[in-house]
Amino acid sequence: MKHFVLIDGHHLMYRAYWAIPRTLKTSTGEQVNMIFGVASMLLSILKKEEPDAILFCMDAGGETFRHGECASYKEGRAETPEDFYVQIPRVFEMLDRWGIRQVSDPQFEADDFLCTYALAGKKAGMRVSVITGDRDALQLVQEGVTMIIPHKGYNEAEYLDAENVWKKYGVRPDQIPAFKGLTGDPSDNLPGVKGIGPKTAATLLQEYASLENIYEHLNDLPKGVKEKLVQDREQAFFCQKMSRLVCDIPLPIPLVDLECKGLSTKKIIDFFEELEFTLLMRRLRNLQLEEQMPLFG
Fold first, then answer.
1. In CATH, what number does 3-166+246-295 get?
2. CATH placement of domain 169-243
3. pTM of the entire structure?
4. Residue 181: partners with Cβ closer than 8 Å, 6 or more residues away
């Protein structure tokens, strides 16, 4: 079975930016810490996951359709440093030289493309891995679709199937939007139901399966829980709606065009040499000598 790897590009870049010292620069003074970190993690992903197809999903920046639904969506996030954005064009240049396709659209978030392509890949008979740290993506997890959360670069990646999602959160993957409807998500500025935490939310969903069914059984609940749910009913359903990913975007890049089919070694080695990534050049050459030959042309 072919393996399709989907990458949350912003998550990977953000992790790389903060993991590698910002003092990392070329001899000409170009700051390259994020570029180096992304390249290093990509080498680890290629070695460990051995993808047959790969796609880098990005946020286009600016407001998406969700901001049209809620003007305060994602407000309150810390400002991203300017030297993060300065390095993004170089990351895209690296991906282009490597032969790794990227996708983004101003209307949607990267998560929506992760969802759309994950389901398309599964439908095409592929095993799908989604690399991200965004909890929204947990709703994608199902038979044939695994979520991978990078830790310590990619050396200690956490693999989440449906069973592991249940063990970690106490809910099924398809219940994640309802879970977030109850608990909210501070990272997206979604309040949820005030006073309902993860433990109570999981207990309610284990008993009643859905947010709709919970509200149909308010009279069966403890008085305090009922009062909280009644008070924030509108917020609960709104946050659930905002947390649901779009899974039916028309594919901007056909699946067949995402197959690895010999990612370019020469172009990426030239790029590494230009940015003085000597260590990564050695790692790439070692990959060629191992059982990764089909990945590189």
1. 3.40.50.1010
2. 1.10.150.20
3. 0.91
4. 192, 193, 211, 236, 237, 238, 239, 240, 241, 243
